[in-house]
Write a structure and sequence with these properties.
3 domains; Cobalt-precorrin-4 Transmethylase, domain 1; five-stranded mixed beta sheet; about 15% strand; five-stranded parallel beta sheet; Methyltransferase, Cobalt-precorrin-4 Transmethylase, Domain 2; globular; alpha/beta
């Protein structure tokens, strides 16, 4: 007889980044129905499973053992067992284990099914107040100042909003390096997102350093930093808004046409004019 066993699937399940209520109904159902849950830290995941009375068997899947453990999990899926992967918090594979297992599963022709949910990156961007039309996420900054400065210099001209994770112990040191290499940009620092002591701090790099002086920062930190500009505008926001108002007074054109005309005349991105006009309504 041939082997007619249907392969199991691999579910990529996003879990809360703090508040246990931030989990989808679908994620709860999937975690109950799969044959095994591969968890970055079984102790942390056990708290989540306990909160929702999920008794599915678990196995560890952290960085150091991911390669070896992935092969075992692939075997289970080839035998028809569904597997769910979860990280400590948020979406697996985003600065967390998952890449190796997913790559091997794809090579084996195993179906990969995303179960979307919480992500610290998207959560931070959503409240940052900085442009989100394009952004670049770089995970954790290098832990040593020399390497950190070297890395920051490679993205100095990046014309996208920048997002990093950072240890609270290195936060001030990293901000100093960011100020030195990237300049005194606007920055948003978010810690303990969705938890009891959630905090969102805003300001320039210098203002942020002053806010943090003498404080003991606790909890995971996500940094959102204003994007660079390879061709700095000669016009301030106030200049642009003044000319925008003048054009609106003297023209029957639509708002969109005025914005496009102004952007062309001043040689600046339309997105910048749109953003300012939207705040100016």
């Amino acid at each position: 007889m041939g082997n007619n066993i249907k392969k199991g699937a691999l579910y990529i399940v996003a879990t809360p980044i703090g508040n246990l209520e931030d989990i989808t109904l679908r994620a709860i159902r999937v975690l109950r129905e799969v044959g095994v849950i591969a968890a970055e830290d079984t102790r942390r995941t056990r708290k989540l499973l306990g909160a929702y009375r999920i008794d599915t068997p678990m196995t560890s899947l952290y960085d150091r053992i991911e390669d070896r453990k992935s092969s075992i999990l692939i075997s289970k899926m080839n035998e028809g067992i569904d597997v769910a992967i979860v990280s400590d918090a948020g979406t697996p594979g985003i600065s967390d284990p998952g890449y190796v297992l997913i790559s091997k599963a794809i090579a084996e022709g195993i179906r990969i099914i995303p179960v979307p949910g919480a992500s610290a990156v998207v959560t931070a961007l959503s409240v940052s107040g900085l442009p989100t039309d394009s952004f670049a996420f770089y995970g954790f900054l290098p832990s040593r100042s020399g390497k950190r400065k070297q890395f920051l210099s490679t993205i100095k001209d990046e014309a996208k909003t920048l997002v990093f994770y950072e240890s609270p112990k290195r936060l001030i040191e990293s901000l100093r390096d960011i100020g030195e290499v990237l300049g005194n940009r606007n920055v948003v620092a978010l810690r303990e997102m969705t938890k009891v002591f959630e905090e969102v701090m805003r300001g320039t790099v210098r203002e942020m350093i002053n806010q943090l002086q003498g404080r003991v920062v606790k909890g995971e930190v996500t940094l959102v930093i204003e994007r660079g500009d390879k061709t700095p505008s000669l016009f301030s926001d106030a200049d642009i808004l003044a000319q925008y108002d003048e054009l609106r007074k003297d023209s029957d054109s639509s708002r969109r046409d005025i914005i496009e005309k102004l952007a062309k005349e001043l040689g600046i991105p339309k997105k910048r004019v749109y953003r300012l006009a939207a705040k100016h309504i």
